[in-house]
Amino acid sequence: MQTANLFIVLLVLSAVAYYMARGRSVALAQPLGGIRHLHSLPFFYGMRAAIWCALPSIFLLALWLIFDEHIISILLMERLPEGHQPTSAAEHNLLLNSIENIASGALSAETADPALVSAADTLQGLRATGRNLVTAVVLSLAVIGMGWGWVKVSPKLRARQQVERVFRGILLACACVAIFTTVGILLSVLFESLRFFQAVPATEFLFGTEWSPQMAIRSDQVGSSGSFGAIPLFVGTLLISFIAMLVAVPAGLMSAIYLAEYASPRVRSLAKPALEILAGIPTVVYGFFAALTVAPFLRKAGEGVGLEVSSESALAAGLVMGVMIIPFISSLADDVITAVPQSLRDGSLGLGATRSETIKKVIFPAALPGIVGGVLLAVSRAIGETMIVVMAAGLAAKLTANPLETVTTVTVQIVTLLVGDQEFDSPKTLAAFALGLMLFVVTLALNFIALRVVKKYREQYE
Questions:
Q1: What residues pair up with 211 in beta bridges, in sequence order?
Q2: Domain 227-461 has CATH 1.10.3720.10
Q3: Where in the chain is the domain with CATH 1.10.3720.10?
């Protein structure tokens, strides 16, 4: 049975278990004078039986889906003839791919090695046997769980406590997924970064001013060692992000203040959705707009005043990125300003303050923690943006603070280094992980600063 069909059958069996156990609890309560004599509501008796039916079976099915291909590949390789046994991991993967292509029909069995054709038949047989076996075991376990949940129903059974304990464990597991995912990402990036720093000194990476990660195939070629000074990437990232923030922060905050404090309900109902539409535009569209409209306009405007503006410049990328980020700051700031208690406004106005003074002296400081969070979210979006920079700012790693020249960012170089077939033992590819680690450290520092600011002002207004 296919996995999707098996999952549907488990859901049906769980529903049957729920109604059977619930009906049994109601039937047992009738001679006692009604469900008030049960320890728990009938719903919890039904949920307990459904959990016993579904949870162990789904757990077993998940384990099988994780390990089945690995187990099948081991059994398959053990059945290969002596002369076809792989001697390395690369040969093992190549041989396994060939067998899977023959089994799927992508490769013709007539022109393939007979041993591989036989292995393909064996692979199909092992997969069919595995599906039949897991189907039988999972369904048997579900039926046993359903019967156990039905038999154990009694008026004194603490069904509610058991169900709540299970759901508490599920919620804890869901919360741990995010933590473990973050830890896993950090460790994977950290280990690969350490491999990079074994080949390239950390001082050269952090303080070098030349970035040319191209590695030659032969040692006699020019630039065979590469240059991995990341200062131009950091400067380019900060320059474009700074320009974007100069556009997004004032425009976003001013629009949020107008929508929250000055706009009429009709204007707000039209302007707020129209502003938030900007957040739904794909970044590639912004990139086209920057490359085809904004950059030529800036170049012609610069020529008009005697300035030399590159066709791909940090200014073009930063301006368009700032427009893209406006909805993030505006929407979050608007929600935070709207959430400020009306009593603060009334108290300020009652003391004789004007509306503008109330906004500057009362509402804005009270909403500052949320505004800082929105700004930092926008900064993170600016630092992590790739498409606009690729299309509008270019790929040249220049150490310059001139916004009219071509620059590149950390994220663009990470994408460039990992595109196509790459050798992960090369410093060129490992440099992407070192750049990712630097982004993680910067983001962590921004979050720490935000927490300090939020804590300071929250103490004053709570």
A1: 228
A2: yes
A3: 227-461
